[in-house]
Each structure stands twice: as C-alpha cells, then as structure tokens.
Amino acid sequence: MEPINVRLPRKVIERVDDIASKNGLTRSEVLRQALTIYLSLLESVGDISGIRGLKIKPAEIGATRRKGLLLLHLKNRQVIALGATSCGGIGEKPGDVLKMDGRTLGRIMARTALIKVIVVGATPIALVCNLSVEFDPSGIEIFGGIRDEARKIGGVEILEGHTEENFKTRETGLGIVVVGIVEEDRLKIGRIRPGDIVLAVGKPHVGREVLEKGIIGLETALRLSRSESVHELLPVGSGGIRWAIGELERLYGLRVEVREGLKVDVGRSCGPSSVLLAMVSEEEVDRVVRGIEEDVEVIGRVL
C-alpha cells in the first residue's frame, strides 16, 4: 500500500476519531474502509440504477408555480426549484434611473434570486445571469458582485451568460435564474398550520433605501429555512406585505388575522425582497427570532 495525504475539515476528523474509538480501530483504518466502500458504490451505480432508470419523461414531471418560482417535482421524490428575478434602469449607465455601482447591483440581484430558492428549503446549485450591457467594464463588475454573494453559500456553479456586444446601451438590465434541489419531504411549502404566528423579518425598502438602510441577508434566510419551527417562508417584493398575505390566503384557502397598529407599512413596496414573511409555531417565536439582526414584527395569526 502507498501512503496518501488528505486534508479534511476538523469536524470530519472528529467524527472519524469518534467512530475509530467506538470500534477499536485506528483513524487510518476508518478512512481506508470508508474510501473502499465509497469506491465500490461508485463503480456499482450503473448496475444499480441503469441508464433506463435515470430517464425522466416530461409527462412524469409535476409543476408548482409561484411568483418568480417554479418547482419541478420528479418521480424520484426530488424537486428542482427555479427562482427568477430581473431589473432595469438601475446601474451606472447614462439612462439609469437609480445610480448604483455594478458590483453592488450584482450582489443585490443575486441575493434576491437565491433567497427565492432557499426559502422553500432547496439548496442552490447553479445560477445563470444574462446582461443587457457590454462585458467590459459593466459586465465584469456585475458578475463580480454575483460571485461575491453566491460565495456566501458555496457550491453554486455560475454561468455568466450573454452580454450585449452589438450595440452601445444607455440603460442597465439583467435577468437571473437560480436552480436548486430539495427532497420532496423537505420542501417548505404547504406546511402552514392554524395558530401559526406570521412574522415580518426586515423592513420595506425600495430604490436608494436599499443602499442606505440595507436588506435582509442570505444568512438570515438560510437560518430561517433550516428551522423546523418555521413552517413556511415567503419573500415579499414590490407588491408589499398586504399583497403577500393575500397570496397566502389565496394559495391555501386560509385567513390571516392582521394585527392593528403595526409599525411596518404593509402596503409599501419591499423592493428586492427586503422582507420575509415567516409562519412560525406560536410557542417557538421567541427562539426563532433570537439572534436575528434584522427588524422583526408580529404581523398576525393564521386562523
């Protein structure tokens, strides 16, 4: 046998040492056996599944749609989530209404599309972006911002799509699609229960306010999506909180009792998803909101 050097995260090494201790093995023996089993599985994949078993017919794919989100339900109980967003008139071009540097624009728009996939429990695996501006210098800056934001999650493959090289443009425009994947039983949709408390995480911001006051971060969206106490999440965009609540009522045939005297303006645009509605078990509200840096307000209760 030949020795090899492998770098592993500390948590993995701790798990290996724990298994070794429980089974009276050395660290090397655990790693060698794990690698041997893994290689055997990889070599057997073709025999186990077969190419025919991997084929999926269009008729076998179910689809669920929401604003800016498409869920494709596969026969193997996996779901492919596609989240889309776009913007125009925001950037550094002469005709742009709101002036914003390309890197910041890329970060904000990537975050908006990523959140649409994250909130349903899916793991983002790919991002595609097309621009209506030239690659150099505008595209370079925008793509750089997109990469910065996607790096916060890790494991997201980025396709820097088409740019406009035939004509000189006077306004900035872009479209982003994020692809994610989740097991059907982990999908965070349709889990709202009577008695759930509706929280507004973040504040309605649009236009220059997004730059000056900030918006909800990917880290917060990830944390909420991974909590079992959070039954469902809904990003709120230009329609505002009142519209989003109406969407919930329409989708599930339920009613949300909205509190009076709210601090947040439920009719105001939330721009690039600056607010998340979170439906949470009443007894878990305090634990869920603990540590969240953004503003949180109880909007109402599901009846």
Describe the protein:
By secondary structure, this protein is of the alpha+beta class. It folds into 3 domains: 10-52; 59-186, PurM-like, N-terminal domain (60s Ribosomal Protein L30, Chain: A, 2-Layer Sandwich); 197-302, PurM-like C-terminal domain (Phosphoribosyl-aminoimidazole Synthetase, Chain A, domain 2, Alpha-Beta Complex). It contains 8 helices and 13 strands. The strands form 3 sheets. The protein has a 6-stranded mixed beta sheet. Strands 10-12-9-13-11 form a 5-stranded antiparallel beta sheet, with helices on both faces. The chain has a two-stranded parallel sheet with strand order 4-5. Strand 1 and strand 2 form a beta hairpin. Helix 1 (10-23) packs across helix 2 (27-54). The radius of gyration is 23 Å and the shape is globular.
Topology:
Elements: H1 10-23, H2 27-54, E1 62-66, E2 69-73, E3 78-88, E4 90-91, E5 98-99, H3 102-118, E6 123-131, H4 135-150, E7 157-160, E8 173-183, E9 197-202, H5 208-213, H6 218-225, E10 230-236, H7 240-252, E11 256-258, E12 275-280, H8 285-289, E13 296-302
Parallel strand pairs: 4-5, 6-7
Antiparallel strand pairs: 1-2, 2-3, 3-8, 6-8, 9-12, 9-13, 10-12, 11-13
Helix pairs in contact: 1-2, 3-4, 3-6
Describe the structure using short key phrases.
Phosphoribosyl-aminoimidazole Synthetase, Chain A, domain 2, six-stranded mixed beta sheet, five-stranded antiparallel beta sheet, 3 domains, 60s Ribosomal Protein L30, Chain: A, alpha+beta, 303 residues, globular
